[in-house]
Design brief:
The chain is an alpha+beta fold. Helix content is 22%, strand content 36%.
Length: 347
């Protein structure tokens, strides 16, 4: 149980227990980079918030305890950091930045052996290269606390973020923001009855989540030059796999099918090109896989070799496209190998 404070001291805290504190740094070139379609990855947030009040164990008898995602066996600190990152990603979709999907970032970093060092700033260039982005946004939850003093409660969320340019290593944007909500005497006028009950409402986990959303929204506004779009734009879609769906011995002959498979962001337009022989061949989303890091889907398409197709080696490329009223994002991928055609018209 927290130590009780004298009533005069609680009253003296006053309105300072409710409000916002923010500081930020914005590099002059950020606006120009943003207008050119700057592509960023939001890497997993860390959580260095003080342990005092974080788990709210001592509050069980007097108020609700936090429950972000019940049933998930994930440490509380990681759950809080993930929740804060999700809020930031949601608001960033209403900015002019191209933001890559979280599942793609997690997959690519794992494949590159960088998942364990993603927050090591000395590995920034490697991380950005593996993800194909221009910059990396780091985040740290520095406050996530609730305090209860019988006639007062205070909920507090603090977030620090930095956007670092991968090429220059320059900090393009940095922000520290703390949002507080006070209930009880310090939260505003109250009568004798509400003095005992209002602080308990301030302990609600919903206040922490509301503060988290507010902090994330204001951060995205600052990053985007002070405003957000009227509706979310798309995150930059990604393909993790582009390949032939079936092994094939020797060149493809007339009448045979070239089956192409791709795995990536769901609910997108995906198509493939066989060099300049056949372009914009549509691919269909066949399965969807749900994952805590974000959903992904499998796309399939095919081309039947024509008897008039000449013998040649063709590059295989895939395009994934997703758009909204605000912006369309299109990304191209090339398979490592080539597709061989026999060109002899044999069945």
């Amino acid at each position: 149980m927290k130590q009780l404070l004298p009533l005069p001291l609680l009253v003296a805290l006053g309105a300072s227990c409710t409000g916002t504190h923010a500081s930020r740094h914005i590099a002059p070139q950020l606006a120009e980079l943003r207008s050119m379609g700057y592509r960023i990855a939001v890497v997993p947030f860390t959580n260095t918030a003080p342990a005092d009040g974080l788990l709210s164990d001592s509050l069980a008898a007097v108020g609700e305890t936090i429950a972000l995602e019940p049933g998930q066996e994930v440490p509380m600190r990681e759950r809080i950091a993930q929740s804060m990152q999700d809020h930031v990603l949601t608001w960033l979709q209403q900015t002019d930045f191209e933001v890559i999907d979280p599942w793609h970032a997690a997959t690519q970093l794992t494949h590159a052996g960088l998942a364990a060092v993603v927050n090591d700033r000395s590995r920034l260039a490697e991380v950005a290269r593996a993800l194909g982005v221009d910059g990396v946004l780091y985040g740290d939850v520095r406050q996530w606390n609730r305090s209860y003093y019988v006639v007062q409660s205070v909920a507090e969320v603090g977030l620090h973020v930095e956007l670092i340019d991968a090429t220059s290593g320059l900090t393009l944007f940095a922000s520290d923001r703390t949002e507080r909500y006070g209930a009880g005497l310090s939260g505003g006028p109250t009568g004798y009855v509400s003095a005992a009950t209002e602080p308990l409402a301030g302990l609600s986990g919903s206040h922490l989540r509301s503060l988290a959303r507010n902090a994330a929204r204001h951060l995205a506004e600052d990053l985007n030059g002070g405003e957000l779009g009227n509706q979310p734009g798309p995150t930059a879609p990604r393909l993790a796999v582009v390949a032939l769906a079936k092994e094939h011995d020797g060149p493809f002959r007339a009448g045979e099918r070239v089956d192409v498979v791709a795995t990536g962001t769901p609910d997108c337009q995906v198509q493939f090109d066989l060099g300049r022989l056949r372009t914009s061949v549509p691919m269909v989303m066949t399965t969807r896989h749900e994952d805590p890091r974000g959903p992904r889907a499998t796309y399939l398409g095919h081309y039947i070799v024509d008897a008039v197709d000449a013998a040649t080696e063709l590059p295989l490329t895939c395009t994934i496209r997703r758009g909204s009223a605000r912006r369309t994002v299109e990304v191209h991928y090339r398979w490592d190998g080539t597709v061989s055609l026999a060109g002899d018209g044999a069945p």
